[in-house]
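Below is a filled-in request sheet from our internal design queue. Each sheet records the structural input a requester submitted and the sequence that came back. We keep these sheets so that new team members can see what a complete request looks like end to end.

REQUESTER: design group, bay 2
PRIORITY: normal
MODE: inverse folding
CHAIN LENGTH: 88
BACKBONE (tokenized):
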């Protein structure tokens, strides 16, 4: 992809090991990232396709999702410009 950018995702599960992966994104995918994430979390499952397998995770088993760097577009249910205080 031209001008490819990379996101790192860590999907922490209520039951099971976290799923950590990277995905490339062009400028259009970066602009639409917030909307795509909100739609994914409203669905009954989220899928991650790797070259050798597909992992389907029911959203009710997702404890949290970490995304680095965060999407630049505004997400309705996200507090922006926060300062992290201490360890999780």
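RETURNED SEQUENCE:
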């Amino acid at each position: 992809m031209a001008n490819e950018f990379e996101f790192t995702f860590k999907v922490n599960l209520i039951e099971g090991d976290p799923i950590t992966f990277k995905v490339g994104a062009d400028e259009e995918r970066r602009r639409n990232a917030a909307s795509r994430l909100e739609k994914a979390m409203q669905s009954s499952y989220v899928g991650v396709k790797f070259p050798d397998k597909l992992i389907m995770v029911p959203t009710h088993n997702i404890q949290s999702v970490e995304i680095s760097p965060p999407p630049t577009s505004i997400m309705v249910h996200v507090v922006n410009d926060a300062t992290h205080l201490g360890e999780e």
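SHEET NOTES:
- The chain has a mean pLDDT of 86.
- The chain has two helices and five strands.
FILED BY: M.R.
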